[in-house]
Amino acid sequence: MVTIHIEKVRKTFGEVVATDDVNMDLQDGKLSTLLGPSGCGKTTLLRLIAGFYEPDYGRIYFDDVDVTDIPPNERNTGMCFQNYALWPHMTVFDNIAYGLKMKRVDGKRYTKDAIIRRVNEALELVRMQGLGDRTPHQLSGGQQQRVALARALVIEPDVLLLDEPLSNLDAKLRNEMREEILRIQGELGITTVYVTHDQVEALSISDMVAVMDKGYIQQYGPPREIYAEPQTLFVADFIGKCTFFDGKIKSLGDFINVELNDGQVVSGRTPVEGYPFEIGEEVRCAVRPEDLFLTSTDPKNNEISGVVTQVVYIGSNVEVFFNVGETSAVASLPPDVNLFEGEKIDLYAPREDIMVLPLGGVDALRKIPGHPLYSQS
Ligand SMILES: Nc1ncnc2c1ncn2[C@@H]1O[C@H](COP(=O)(O)OP(=O)(O)O)[C@@H](O)[C@H]1O
Ligand SMILES: [Mg+2]
Which residues does ligand 1 sit against, CB inside 6 Å? Predict the structure, then answer.
């Protein structure tokens, strides 16, 4: 098993910067996810780790070995591609055996018996025993995915790379395969990099999540931290739901007072430690629907007043949409509340739950001393 160290990696395609300034450690034996919208650079980063692309700048290490100039077949990684990429004319057995037949250990090839034994073990691992004689078109999508996984794992890689492995499966199969991947990853304890654009999938499966946008890592941390302590507006918006209120900083301290555009003043805290906020600075306050309440026991809680625009019953609770000045906000409230469109509503939010975030995305992170993206220029 290995830890993958990525240092200042950049990859461009002509004028397109696919990924830039990537600094991260993907920990030994853990499942780390690259999460972000289509085109943000996830596949590019995965391929850089596999060695299919060479970075324009920066280095990649497996433990303390610099692999940047080592070709993919010598990095001992197993990769599952988004479309499975099984060879249609080969049996399941031959698909899985292919990598083993190519592989040399100390210059020697595997014996026929060793290949048969290992392929059967891999089939067992993905619960496909007895299906080795089939061809891919005789398999369901989920089974094809299992074969792709077996093919990646049969060479006993140090690193498992999975590119949107569930995106071609229907919802039920997706949950089933997600459990399977977790089981296999746990059984083998293999360093795994998992790519997805689905935030629920990422939060539920990962030890660590890297949220990417436009080629940059916006935040890298455990799922709970990504949700509770978003470091950029993009992360707050992409993970879970948030209402954003624009305003200007009135005062700084343990809590930050922000005057919203409609004149209300709210008190919040920032999850972005070390960012040099200034009085008068334009910021955005983010609040999660579950952090708004109809009653308040603490006089320090914020009161936010608005007008109800829509009430949506979703069983366990109601989603109440309301306008605060020009801003459309949403609160998740108990299912028994009786609210009507057009009604004036006062909601309460604890100071801890109003997240004050700087404008400017990655550029704001560059202003934080000690941050991997910090720049003095
Ligand atoms: N081989 C390539 N040639 C040119 N542009 C590419 C190539 N691969 C990716 N890109 C561009 O790089 C950016 C990141 O792509 P990609 O890593 O595939 O994103 P994701 O996997 O997050 O959807 C996109 O703008 C994409 O169009
Ligand atoms: Mg991709």
Answer: 13, 16, 18, 36, 38-44
